[in-house]
Design goal:
heterodimer, A: 187 residues, mainly beta, seven-stranded antiparallel beta sheet, 1 helix, 12 strands, rod-shaped, B: 202 residues, elongated
Chain lengths: 187, 202
Amino acid sequence: MKNSTLIKGTAAIAVGAALLLGGGGTLANWNAADSATPGTIIAGDMNVVAGTGVWKDRNDKPVDISTYRVVPGDKLTYTQDLTVTLVGDKLAANVTLANIPTSTFNSDNVIVSPLKLSNTNGDVTSTTVLKPVTGSATQTVTATTVFEFKGSTAGRNDVTKDYKLGNVSYTVTQVTQDGLSGVTTPQ
Amino acid sequence: MRTKRRLQAAALIAIAVVLGLFTVQGTYALWSAAASASPGTVTSASFDTAMTAVNTGQTTNMTLTNGTAATLTLSPAGTLGPGTSVYGGVVVTNNTNAGGQFNAAITAGQPTLANVNGGSLASYVRVNAKSAASSTECSTATGFAPIPSTGLVSPTVVKGASTVFCFQIALDSSAPATVKGQAVNISLQLTARQLCGVPSGC
């Protein structure tokens, strides 16, 4: 009987010891591991590049505005393409232009349509919202102005006068959309 | 407790101050990009028409720099006798610097004759004219006719080209001897007009 108790006791101890020894002396909870690739955050893009402007006469023939001299009856059209880059899932933008021409022509003798912007959808005003187009990082916005020297100009009126278009600036500005927290400079 | 509250208060103040600093300094702006261009200057042409006297070579622009009409003396060669004529002419040149087409037509108006020093020669003088392609035609006696009330209109004169008006001054064969030695001033107006050459532009 005693031997059994001894044996049991010994076995118990041995098991306890074996448990201790089998663990290398460390008791650890379960653990498991896996890996993942969250991905890369890439910023979009926004830019505007002005192409070369072109002047054409009534016959759609290009003219060199630096040497061409208009006469009554002439009608010149200026066209300049802007390449607007819009890349971004929540990107939207306005395009505005600033232009302050000066003229020495008598306003009775000329018809001038102010410089304006347009695209395939029509006029692009300061409130038109442009968004990225599917399949292309860029889209075209076109600036145009028309100068007409009236054929009814009499005598020698407005000879050697000029209409200076000066400098034109085109600005693309991001506008906030749902899901964005950016705001313009606080007042 | 006091310490904790003080610390808490201090922390709140610190946070508020920091936030305050950020608000003053910070600018929250969305993207923008800009480009510029210089479309240039639209300049109108000159409307310069030159007149050159055939006999003397004297030349002037039809319109002076002050905007007034020029006067060109033609000085027909020779002296007038009853039944004879003298001749002169003017070459008119389209000198515009227009970029595109700029055709003109020149019109010679009817002459006015004025006696000098109270004479009576004018009533015996006839002025005839003809349009010519060359100044040498002014020496030939053929082709002259009185200038109609509507004027004598040249052919179309393109940019850089010229036209010629020849004038014949004839003294009636019936002119009396009393007009011998008298003089008369003859003047007529030349008008240059742009022709509509810009399609759909006039």
